[in-house]
Amino acid sequence: MRFTISGLVSTDNKLVLLHNAQESSYSSTNSSCSGGSGSSISSSISSSSSSSSSSSSSSTLVVVVVVVIVVEVVVVGVVVIIIVVEVVAVVVVVVKLVVVAVVEVAVVIVLVVVVVVVLVAVVVVAVVVVVVVVVVVVVVVVVVIVVLVVVIEVVVVIVVLAVVLVALVVVVVVVVVVVVIVRSSSSRSSSNNNSCRSSSSSSSSCSSSSNNSSSSLVEVVVVIVLVVVVVVVLVLQS
């Protein structure tokens, strides 16, 4: 803009000079027309010199004007080039900003996806851990129940064996007692028979003793049967 203003000022000065030259030539021609014959030659010489000077000044002015116009065109071209460069720089900056924004958005999207994937993985791992813990607890409970059942069965078997052993001992004792009773009764009956044969007592006493021995045998048999029934009932209950 400084070049443009200075060019315009110089152009205005040249126009003023041209106007002054034209006025001087006009005044010289007027003076030649108004003067006598003696002064006509000098006036023509001065007019020719003034016309030549005015033509040279006008040509110089034209050259200066052309140079100024060329300079102004060059300046305008430089300004246009600067504006274009600035526009290109602004476009480049805008493109860079857009690219950076797009990259940042892409990075944010990738980070969000990664966070979501990590959260899903954590939830899946937590669910798997909970399922494993539940399965382990169930297995432990089942094992404890099975162990308790086995222990209870073992205790029941031991109790049954103890009851059976006690019953067998009772049976053996009863059998021994019965055998002893039977032997004693048989010995008594044999002694009674011998006494009946050797003595001269009546037959009623001998028959009563035989009846007593037979009743004792019946009682022994009944006791044995009762013991066997009790043992069978205990075994069935166990």
Automatic annotation (TrEMBL):
Region (Disordered) location: 187-212
Domain of life: Eukaryota
Sequence intervals crossing the membrane: 61-85, 97-120, 127-152, 158-182, 217-236
Keywords attached to this entry: Membrane, Transmembrane, Transmembrane helix
This protein's record includes keyword Calcium: no
The protein, known as: ABC transmembrane type-1 domain-containing protein
Organism: Elysia marginata
Lineage, uppermost ranks: Eukaryota, Metazoa, Spiralia, Lophotrochozoa, Mollusca
